[in-house]
Amino acid sequence: MARIENRIRRLRFDAEEMTQKDLADRVGVTRQTILAIENGKYFPTLELAFRIARAFGVALEDVFTFHEDDGR
Amino acid sequence: MSRGEREALTGLITSLIVLALFLWHLTDLAANGALVGPDALQIWARRVLVLVAWSIGIAIVVSVAFAILHAVVTGERGDDRRDERDRDIDRRALTFAWYLLSFGLLGVIIDLALGATALRAMNLILALCAGSEILKDALRFWLYRRGA
A64 has which bridge partners? Predict the structure, then answer.
């Protein structure tokens, strides 16, 4: 089964310990949505994914990584 | 608690109060023998219309009371935004509610074909509407709680 991982928590820490609320305000969603994305419970739309990457000033692939299992 | 989560919880509370109110009034009508005779459906429909008006009032009171209670207990104003996750949760919950309503309506039609009265069918449809609303809000609340 394929899985998508994210590095949002790490990126927030590197961005002067940006809070979930700060990131949520920057990308126009609720803090709960950022929390759900960080925990891998919710997968954002492509638009929101790009917004998050832009908020950190990095490429999309630096925030989200796609892993496909070997036994596809 | 986000706005969507608050709406799901207040919707659930409202639906349960309204369902209890409907059951109480319609049981009362039936016990008084008002639902027997040629004008039974008319009496039923008038009572339901009154109850629908009451439901709107109850929904407003519950959401205002909950907003005040939430602000007092948590000390926070709450996030009033609705975003793509709220819409996704709404869509998922609505899908299940729609299935219940659709299959339920099919069941009512089968019941009618087997000889059920129009009044029974209308009561079943009313119960289905209430049931699907409760299912939708309960699912929304559960999805929010599990962090979906």
Answer: A6
